[in-house]
Design goal:
The structure holds two protein chains of two kinds. Chain A is α/β, with parallel strands linked by helices. In chain A, helix 1 runs parallel beside helix 12. In chain B, helix 4 crosses helix 8. Classes of the chains: A alpha/beta, B mainly alpha. The interface between A and B is large, with 50 and 50 residues.
Chain lengths: 556, 194
């Protein structure tokens, strides 16, 4: 569908802000700044799809990657574990996995919506240094971010109920948790049996109508799909309509940015992009905000190198693209006697946070949270291709009988865990391949820290105990192996007070380029325990407030 | 092609709600309903559009061992070969050459007859077991599973045979309780046990 803009800006007239990316952060920044009266142009590389255009077509969405930029062969990124390898284009799915279009990954994400806790912001101080890593405290505290978490709860729309380990909140959840599913009941039972504490899962999915948006209908197509009724709290559903209604925000979909042009005074003057017809355009701007996700923001800065910034724009620290954290994880699959029908409804209804904090006694850094869900077994094809036990026949009558028996009786316990920030895990520019616009491809180099893998395995052991205690008649645990890609693209332009070891300051302003701001998953200093979107959105609300203040005071 | 039509029909009658009906009744968006109405699962005996008759016969025989028809329906009952024929001409056209040359190589490895489809079932299974690590087999397994479980608009999963087999009741709106354990939980809550 064509987007209907109430305002259109001329390319040659500088707008107050160009926002690159319209996802979890970009959608919020665009709306907040436009509603505050600033002129805003959003450049989004993907198309604009309305809620009514989302389908349940698994073959198209999952196997053709129709929402995520296309198959790798047509739009390559490359991946390698170690920097002495030549990075390769994967077969099924690109390593930096994100929804390409207005709303960004908040459109197709699972909607798990955990806040960070007080400890997340100061772990380095509490635990001490970890050799060979860039482990650091955040420049801000939980208390500083809390009002913005609450803003996300109410303006974006979060369902849930407080849990025993949550950090303090200033306001209750706006809507109650989603109804518990069989997977949640079983996780709760297993957790109780081993002395753990299950709590309702906070989700960016509405259990009751809120802000003119409807409640979830339990169709089950959350993870990897767009919500056709707008109950999932994407920025597409919650922010973009308000941004457009302000009359100050023009959203240009199908606009792939390839360069930030620097003027003589050292400030970004123009954002250059390829439009829907393949023409190169340049939008003049007084200030620029990058919210293109941790992978694409980094690529764009590296591509925007110039004589003054030979290693990439805003990269005097050398930290652009570095410290990529994707959240280590482990899975336990479990089959039960009776039907769960876990393919219905939202993915997750119960979580367990007893192992959230790192404990030096374990001998490794790390923490995490458990959840129970159908996982990729929520949809029939992915269930058959990915959720099967490898030490059983993979075809034939027995295989078919297992499909028939298990689809409605199987669930997974996921261990969502930490990643340490490392130099070796990064986004760089691929020397060979080009994406579908002809831009040099994104290259990911990633090998989880040994502690990340040890922690994921440690958690997996507890997940096995919970599955057994819940009464699983069969369970199996895929081995924990180094990640080869992910949807959590964190840490690559981290915030910090020291320009030597961070890319942006505590208000998301580049240390190097005064009118350049960066706000998305790349801003995060540590990884949290998975489920980063809530924090990305809170950071965006906070950044918008400070950026508006600075612009109002003529301090940009 | 021998097939157990009686048990297949019995299975169809005994299965639960028809997915398409659920979808429309529960008022899903019009685009979804239209997609469902426009489904193009092909009937048995339809003409192949991409594959030759020989290729189709052989690929069909392979798919029929990956998901065999037993007391419950298999790949043949779902018309998986028509899915393969459809997508290799359209969405997965880039794979057609690989499947073609893979089939030639697969047949060339046969010891006795030159056609896989001419073997009896146990000989077919034995040969597939030999080849199960090959790229061609991996591709055929993937295509068979997708064809069995994809929306009918891609040519397979005829009459939602695949969805009914696994107990997938469609993807419309649903109301809790969804399964046995949450139903129990709700009941206990209602009775004040919790």
């Amino acid at each position: 569908m064509a987007i209907v803009n109430r305002v259109e800006y001329a390319l040659t007239q500088p707008v107050d802000f160009v926002v690159v990316g319209s996802g979890s952060a970009g959608g919020i920044l665009a709306k907040e700044l436009a509603v505050s009266g600033f002129s805003v142009v959003v450049l989004e590389q993907g198309p604009y799809r309305e809620a009514s255009e989302f389908t349940h077509d698994e073959f198209d969405v999952v196997l053709n990657s129709s929402l995520t930029g296309g198959r790798p062969s047509a739009n390559p990124q490359t991946f390698r574990h170690d920097d002495d390898e030549v990075a390769k284009v994967p077969f099924r799915r690109n390593p930096a996995w994100y929804y390409e279009g207005v709303g960004g990954a908040s459109v197709h994400f699972t909607a798990n919506f955990w806040r960070l806790r007080e400890i997340d912001f100061k772990e380095r101080s509490v635990l001490g240094p970890i050799g060979g890593t860039n482990f650091a405290d955040w420049p801000i505290s939980y208390e500083e971010l809390e009002p913005y978490y609450t803003k996300v709860d109410w303006e974006i729309g979060v369902s849930g109920a407080p849990g025993p380990f949550d950090s303090p909140r200033s306001r209750p959840f706006p809507v109650p948790p989603m109804p518990v599913k069989s997977s949640g009941v079983l996780l709760e039972k297993g957790a109780k049996a081993i002395g753990f504490h299950a709590q309702p899962a906070p989700l960016a999915i509405l259990s009751r109508p809120l802000n003119g948006r409807p409640a979830c209908i339990n169709c089950g197509y959350c993870m990897g799909f767009g919500c056709e009724i707008g109950a999932k709290s994407s920025t597409l559903a919650a922010m973009i309509p308000q941004a457009l209604a302000s009359g100050k925000c023009e959203i240009r979909p199908d606009s792939a940015v390839f360069n930030l042009e620097l003027a003589e005074d050292g400030r970004v003057s123009e954002v250059q992009y390829i439009d829907a017809d393949g023409n190169q355009r340049g939008q003049k701007a007084r200030a620029v905000i990058l919210s293109a996700n941790g992978a694409e923001t980094s690529r764009l800065l590296l591509l925007s190198e110039n004589s003054r910034h030979p290693d990439g724009l805003a990269n005097s620290s050398g930290f652009v693209g570095r410290n990529l954290m994707m959240n280590a994880h482990a899975t336990v699959h479990a089959v039960f006697e009776h039907r769960l029908n876990d393919y219905k409804g939202v993915q997750v209804t119960r979580i367990v946070h007893d192992l959230y904090e790192s404990d030096p006694k374990r001998g490794f850094y790390g923490g995490g949270g458990f959840d129970a869900r159908p996982f990729l077994g929520a949809t029939p094809i992915m269930f058959s291709l990915t959720q099967q036990r490898r030490d059983r026949p993979q075809w034939g009558a027995e295989f078919k009988d297992r499909l028939a028996h298990n689809f409605t009786r199987q669930m997974a316990i996921l261990c969502n865990a930490t990643s340490l920030p490392l130099d070796r895990n990064n986004i760089t520019i691929d020397p060979t391949h080009k994406d579908k616009w002809g831009r040099p491809s994104l290259r990911m180099t990633y090998r989880d820290h040994d502690d990340d893998l040890a922690n994921a395995r440690y958690m997996q052991g507890f997940a096995e105990q919970m599955a057994e205690a819940a009464g699983a008649i069969e369970q199996w645990s895929p081995p924990v192996t180094p990640s080869a890609g992910g949807a959590h693209l964190l840490g690559t332009c981290r915030m910090g007070d020291d320009p030597e070891t961070s890319v942006v300051d505590r208000y998301h302003r580049s240390h190097d380029v005064p009118n350049l701001f960066i706000c998305d998953g790349s801003s995060m200093v540590t990884s949290g325990r998975g489920q980063p979107t809530m924090t990305i959105m809170a950071l965006a609300f906070r950044a918008a407030e400070h950026i508006a203040k600075a612009a109002g005071a003529n301090e940009i | 092609m021998a097939r157990d039509t009686i048990s297949r029909r019995h299975f169809m009658q005994g299965s639960g709600a028809v997915a398409g009906g659920t979808l429309i009744r529960l008022g899903m968006p019009a685009a979804m309903a239209a997609a469902q109405a426009a489904c193009t699962a092909r009937d048995e005996g339809a003409v192949f559009e991409t594959l030759t008759e020989d290729e189709a016969r052989e690929l069909d025989a392979i798919a029929a061992r990956i998901l065999p028809t037993t007391h419950t329906p298999g790949a043949r009952d779902a018309g998986v070969i028509y899915f393969i024929d459809t997508v290799l001409g359209k969405q997965l056209a880039g794979m057609l050459d690989r499947v073609r040359s893979g089939l030639v190589e697969f047949q060339a490895g046969l010891a006795g007859p030159t056609r896989f489809s001419a073997l009896d079932e146990s000989a077919q299974d034995a040969y597939l077991a030999e080849r199960e690590r090959s790229r061609f087999f991996g591709t055929m397994r993937m295509l068979t599973l997708i064809g069995f479980l994809a929306m009918e608009r891609y040519g397979g999963n005829r009459d939602s045979v695949g969805w009914k087999l696994i107990g997938f009741e469609g993807h419309g709106a649903a109301q809790p309780p969804f399964g046995y354990y949450d139903a129990q939980y709700m009941e206990a809550e209602r009775d004040g046990d919790r």
